[in-house]
Write a structure and sequence with these properties.
Distance between the termini: 39 Å
Largest sheet: 6 strands, parallel
CATH class of the largest domain: Alpha Beta
CATH topology of the largest domain: Alpha/beta knot
Number of strands: 17
CATH architecture of the largest domain: 3-Layer(aba) Sandwich
Low-confidence stretches: 79-92
Structural class: alpha/beta
Length: 447
C-alpha cells in the first residue's frame, strides 16, 4: 500500500518511522510519503492560505497548491487525470482514496479502517487554520473523515491516527494475524481484558479461568467480558453488534442487574387535555391505551403507570378491565399481559399521583411534560436522560390524550421534552406510539 500525506507541517509525522508503521515501511509493506503543501505553490512567498470570502475570523487554505500536489502525486503513482481537473483514472489504473481530515466528516471507525486497508493508495490532506477551501471537498476528496466531536489544531493528528490504524491491518504488519481479528471494534464489541505474569500482583490475581487450560471456558469468559465491557463503556455498540442468542441473554442479565440511579413513573392524562379546537376537555379511557402503554412501560422498566381520570364511572370501568386481566380469566389466558398490567394504577388527578409517589418513595417526583408542539426551553431526550442519571430521584412522565396536555399541565412541569419528529412534517402520532418512542429514547442506555 502507498499512503501520501499532504501537510504544512511535515515534521509532525516523524513518529511514523517507529514501531509497527516503521517496520512496515522497512519491510516494504507500506510506502509512506509526506509532502509539504508549500512545495506546490506558484508564488515566491509560498502562500498557502488567504482571507475567507464573506469575511470572518482566520484564514482558509487555498485550493491551488492542494490540487497541484494531488495531481503530481497521482502522476507519480501512474494514475491519470482527465482535462478539467476531474480525477477519474481508467478502471485498469490505481484510483486512490483522497481523504480530508475534518471535524465535519463522518466518524472514523474500525470498520472504515478495514475498508481503507483494502485500497492500494490513500492520499490524506491535512487541513489547518479555519479550514480548507470547499472546492477541495467538492471536486477532489472521496472521503471526509473525523476522529470525533472535537476540534484539533490541524488534520495532522487525524492523519497520524488513520495511517497507524490502516497500516497495522496490512497483511504481515502484525506479528500475529489473529491479533487484528480479536481487537476492540473488530467484532462489533470492545475487547476482553488481558493478563500476563505474574499470576498474583499486589493482591490482584489473574482470573482462575485463564489459568485453567479449559479453552472452551476461556473463550466463553472472554466473550462475556467483551459483552460486559461494551455494555458498561459503549452500550451504543450493542445496537449493531452481531449477537448470538446466548449473547443477548447475557446482556439481558447485565441490564437486569444494573441499578438505575432514578425512578421513572408515567401518567396518561384524560383531563385536563385539549380537543381539536384547543378547548380543555375530559377524554374517555380506552382499552388500547391501557394495554399497549402498559406493555411499553413494563418493557422499559417504568416503576408505575398511572391512568389519570377524574370521572369515577370511568375509573370503575377500568378497574373491572384490570381485574379481568390481573386476577380473572385474562390472567390465566395471557400471563404476559397480567405481568405488564401489574404496575397500572388509577388516580383522579396529578396531585394524587404525586402524593402517592412521595409517600412511598420519600421524595416528590419531578414532572416531565410531553407535547407535539415545541416549546421554549424544551429538552432533548439524551440531555434528559443525563439529568436523570446525574441527579437521581423520582420523575413522572406526563402524556396527554386527545390533542395533548392542557397549558396548565405544561406550566406545572419542570421539564418539557422536545416533540418527536420523523422524516417529514407530519407530526400526529397516537399517544400509544409516542409513549413507546419516548420510553425507548429515555430508558435505553445507548439513547
Amino acid at each position: 500500500m502507498r499512503i501520501d500525506i499532504l501537510t504544512l507541517f511535515p515534521a509532525m509525522f516523524t513518529p511514523l518511522a517507529e514501531s509497527m508503521v516503521g517496520r512496515a515501511r522497512e519491510h516494504g509493506l507500506l510506502s509512506l510519503n509526506v509532502h509539504n503543501i508549500r512545495d506546490y505553490t506558484a508564488d515566491k512567498h509560498r502562500i498557502t492560505d488567504d482571507r475567507p470570502y464573506g469575511g470572518g475570523a482566520g484564514m482558509v487554505m487555498k485550493p491551488e497548491p492542494i490540487f497541484a500536489a494531488v495531481r503530481a502525486i497521482c502522476a507519480s503513482a501512474d494514475a491519470s487525470l482527465l482535462a478539467g481537473g476531474d480525477f477519474r483514472p481508467p478502471a485498469t489504473e490505481i484510483k486512490p482514496r483522497i481523504i480530508v481530515a475534518s471535524p465535519q466528516g463522518r466518524p472514523y471507525t474500525q470498520e472504515l479502517a478495514q475498508e481503507l486497508a483494502q485500497e492500494r493508495q490513500l492520499i490524506i490532506i491535512c487541513g489547518h487554520y479555519e479550514g480548507i477551501d470547499e472546492r477541495v471537498m467538492e471536486s477532489l476528496a472521496t472521503d471526509i473523515i473525523s476522529l470525533g466531536d472535537f476540534v484539533l489544531t490541524g488534520g495532522e493528528t487525524a492523519a497520524l491516527a488513520i495511517t497507524d490504524s490502516v497500516a497495522r491491518l496490512l497483511p504481515g504488519v502484525l506479528g500475529h494475524e489473529q491479533s487484528a481479528l480479536e481487537e476492540s471494534f473488530t467484532a462489533g464489541l470492545l475487547e476482553y481484558p488481558h493478563y500476563t505474569r505474574p499470576p498474583l500482583f499486589e493482591g490482584h490475581e489473574v482470573p482462575a479461568v485463564l489459568q485453567s487450560g479449559d479453552h472452551a471456558a476461556i473463550a466463553r469468559w472472554r466473550r462475556e467480558q467483551a459483552l460486559a465491557r461494551t455494555f458498561t463503556y459503549r452500550p451504543d455498540m450493542l445496537a449493531t453488534a452481531p449477537l448470538t442468542a446466548a449473547d443477548a441473554a447475557y446482556v439481558a442479565t447485565l441490564r437486569l442487574a444494573q441499578k438505575q440511579p432514578f425512578r421513572l413513573f408515567m401518567a396518561l392524562l384524560h383531563y385536563p387535555v385539549l380537543n381539536k379546537k384547543k378547548q380543555v376537555i375530559n377524554t374517555s379511557l380506552t382499552n388500547l391505551d391501557l394495554h399497549d402503554i402498559a406493555r411499553a412501560a413494563a418493557t422499559y422498566g417504568v416503576a408505575r403507570y398511572y391512568l389519570v381520570q377524574p370521572i369515577e364511572a370511568q375509573r370503575q370501568l377500568m378497574t373491572d378491565l384490570l381485574d379481568h386481566w390481573r386476577t380473572g380469566f385474562g390472567a390465566r389466558y395471557n400471563p404476559d399481559r397480567q405481568q405488564a398490567l401489574e404496575t397500572v394504577k388509577l388516580a383522579p388527578d396529578i396531585e394524587e399521583v404525586c402524593m402517592e409517589i412521595t409517600q412511598e418513595f420519600a421524595t416528590p417526583p419531578r414532572l416531565i411534560a410531553t407535547s407535539a408542539q415545541d416549546g421554549t426551553g424544551s429538552i432533548d431526550y439524551r440531555a434528559m436522560r443525563r439529568r436523570m442519571e446525574s441527579e437521581g430521584g423520582n420523575y413522572l412522565l406526563l402524556l396527554g390524550t386527545g390533542w395533548g396536555l392542557a397549558e396548565e399541565v405544561l406550566q406545572k412541569a419542570e421539564f418539557r421534552l422536545r416533540p418527536i419528529y420523523g422524516v417529514g412534517d407530519y407530526n400526529h402520532l397516537s399517544v400509544r406510539s409516542a409513549a413507546s418512542v419516548i420510553l425507548d429514547r429515555l430508558m435505553t442506555i445507548d439513547n
